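Quick one, tokens below. Sequence please?
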């Protein structure tokens, strides 16, 4: 704000100075100043350079817009891919839920331990899938963060460039202010001399030369008015171009607003992800409680199995004692009956060998069931380890999410700061350009007041126009006059000067012929006077001839000197034309460089297209891998189901055999 106030004060000071100078110019124009000639100067290419700079900036803006649109298209494609993946995941989750329901219906007939084990395996699978989804979402958020960081870096680069341009413009402004101060001091000194030495023209109606000069001045005024009208039309065209540029800048500001809305939408997505994480945490807590309950039930089942083992051992000991006690009492018939009963229980032959073999088989089956229980315990421990690992990974994911949120917040603040800096720099540039245009228009008006063509003045540089005005006013004070001419009129003037040179050469030739005739006449007169005896007449005639020849010689020398001056002036104008050609060559080189930049941008676009194709291929590969993993998990679930069914059958057989043994005893 302080800088803006200072600039406004400077603008007011400049406006006051311009009003004062306009009043001085009106006073000078009210005075009659005669015989003013225009001073020739080199053309200025500042306006063309500024137009080229504006064109370059427009191209840069167009390139930036194209990049922003490409990034928007990429984000839209990524969002569509995310939606497609989310739909696939929902479908897979629904399929998994259906499978789990089917498994629950099939396993409802089994015991509580088997149900709880199956529930644990299902919960672990769902948690693994959820962890994979969270990891994918984290990777996508990291990619978005990287893209936003790249955008902030680009904006920083642009800001640095604009700061450098601002510093350059400030330096140029200070130099222009110093030059204006020196110019104003010179103008004041010159105007003081003019006010002290007032000269008025006294024009008579009989003086044809002065009347012709007035007519030529009127024609010059009419031509200057026509040129000023053309200059006004050019200024109107420039104003229209500036309005179009302002509209484009407004469009870019709207695009930035859309980007901010997209950032807000990403924030909402992050919040949704946090809510999902909290929901997952609640699920984990419920699963942990289920696992605790299952562990308790497992411990109870193990205690029950140990009690059954103790009972078996007690029954065996009792049987052995009873056998040793009743060995002598019972006869072989009883032993045979016992064998027959055992054989009937064990469903084998009543021989000792077959009974032993059946008992061995029974014990081997019992040990196998124990091994299965130990394996199931190992799997439970693995599942618990996986749960711990998933909890640790979730804590890491939460930390990463917090970091990403902080980085997003910092990046948004940086973007807002950069946008404010850009807007401030644009405003300062516009104010500086308006100041420069006002000063330049003031100088053009001053040039018009001093009777210099406005088109020629507008085509000059700032420094050159100051020098031209100082020399012009110096010539006004000293009485030497010259006319300025622009580059377009120089060609016509060169042709006219060539015609003048030819005409003067013809006049010289005619004068030489006249001199020859005069010489012949003089010779004839000398021949005539030779006959005369009076020496005085001869001397008088010789004096007259000598005086005439001297006058003709002086006239011819003056014409030759004037022609030499015109030739030197024409050479200077040709040098100006050569400078203009050099500038044209420079512009062509700049155009070639711009075409190279366009080709490089096309190459970058093609490389980005290839990268996008590679990313799509990678996404397809990831989807295939996800489908393979899902199939593998389904196969493992089926294998576990088969193992559980086998264990259930073996346990049922074992329980039946125990019941039969108990009933037998």
């Amino acid at each position: 704000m302080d800088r803006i106030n200072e600039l406004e004060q400077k603008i007011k000071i400049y406006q006051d100075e311009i009003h004062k100078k306009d009043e001085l110019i009106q006073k000078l124009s009210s005075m009659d100043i005669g015989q003013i000639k225009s001073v020739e100067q080199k053309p200025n290419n500042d306006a063309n350079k500024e137009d080229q700079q504006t064109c370059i900036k427009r191209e840069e803006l167009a390139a930036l817009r194209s990049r922003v649109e490409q990034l928007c298209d990429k984000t839209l494609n990524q969002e569509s891919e995310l939606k497609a993946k989310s739909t696939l995941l929902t479908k897979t989750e629904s399929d998994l839920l259906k499978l789990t329901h089917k498994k629950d219906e099939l396993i409802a007939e089994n015991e509580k331990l088997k149900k709880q084990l199956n529930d644990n395996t299902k919960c672990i699978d769902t948690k693994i899938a959820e962890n994979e989804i969270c990891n994918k979402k984290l990777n996508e958020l990291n990619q978005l963060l990287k893209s936003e960081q790249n955008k902030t870096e680009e904006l920083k680069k642009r800001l640095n460039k604009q700061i450098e341009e601002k510093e350059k413009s400030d330096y140029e402004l200070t130099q222009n202010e110093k030059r204006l101060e020196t110019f104003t001091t010179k103008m004041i000194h010159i105007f003081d001399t003019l006010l002290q030495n007032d000269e008025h023209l006294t024009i008579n109606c009989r003086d044809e030369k002065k009347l012709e000069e007035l007519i030529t001045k009127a024609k010059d005024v009419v031509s200057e008015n026509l040129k000023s009208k053309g200059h006004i039309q050019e200024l109107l065209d420039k104003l229209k171009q500036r309005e179009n540029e302002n509209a484009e800048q407004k469009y870019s500001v709207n695009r930035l607003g859309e980007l901010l809305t997209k950032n807000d939408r990403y924030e909402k997505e992050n919040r949704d992800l946090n809510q999902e994480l909290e929901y997952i945490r609640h699920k984990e807590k419920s699963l942990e409680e289920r696992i605790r309950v299952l562990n308790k039930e497992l411990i109870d089942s193990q205690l029950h199995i140990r009690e059954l083992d103790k009972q078996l051992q007690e029954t065996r000991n009792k049987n052995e004692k009873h056998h040793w006690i009743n060995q002598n009492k019972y006869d072989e018939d009883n032993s045979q009956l016992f064998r027959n009963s055992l054989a009937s229980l064990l469903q084998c032959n009543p021989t000792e060998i077959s009974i032993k073999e059946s008992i061995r088989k029974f014990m081997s089956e019992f040990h196998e069931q124990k091994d299965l229980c130990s394996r199931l315990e190992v799997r439970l421990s693995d599942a618990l380890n996986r749960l711990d690992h998933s909890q640790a990974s979730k804590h890491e994911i939460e930390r990463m999410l917090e970091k990403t949120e902080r980085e997003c917040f910092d990046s948004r603040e940086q973007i807002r700061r950069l946008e404010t800096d850009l807007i401030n720099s644009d405003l300062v540039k516009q104010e500086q350009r308006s100041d420069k245009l006002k000063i330049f228009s003031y100088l053009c008006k001053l040039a018009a007041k001093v009777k210099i063509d406005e088109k020629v003045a507008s085509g000059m540089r700032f420094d050159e126009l100051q020098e031209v005005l100082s020399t012009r006013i110096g010539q006004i004070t000293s009485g030497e006059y010259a006319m300025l001419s622009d580059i377009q009129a120089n060609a016509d003037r060169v042709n006219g000067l060539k015609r003048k040179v030819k005409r003067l050469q013809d006049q010289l030739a005619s004068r030489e012929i006249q001199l020859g005739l005069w010489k012949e006449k003089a010779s004839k007169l000398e021949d005539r006077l030779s006959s005369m005896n009076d020496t005085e007449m001869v001397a008088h005639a010789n004096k007259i001839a000598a005086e005439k020849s001297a006058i003709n010689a002086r006239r011819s020398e003056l014409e030759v000197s004037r022609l030499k001056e015109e030739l030197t002036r024409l050479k200077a104008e040709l040098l100006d034309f050569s400078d203009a050609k050099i500038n044209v060559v420079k512009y062509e080189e700049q155009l070639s460089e711009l075409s190279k930049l366009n080709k490089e941008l096309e190459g970058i676009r093609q490389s980005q297209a290839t990268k996008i194709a590679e990313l799509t291929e990678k996404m397809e590969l990831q989807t295939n891998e996800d489908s393979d993993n899902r199939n593998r998990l389904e196969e493992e679930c089926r294998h576990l189901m088969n193992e559980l069914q086998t264990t259930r059958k073996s346990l049922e057989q074992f329980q039946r055999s125990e019941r039969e043994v108990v009933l037998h005893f």
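The CA atoms of residues 52 and 629 lie 60 Å apart. Confidence is low (pLDDT under 50) at residues 31-44, 190-206, 480-493.
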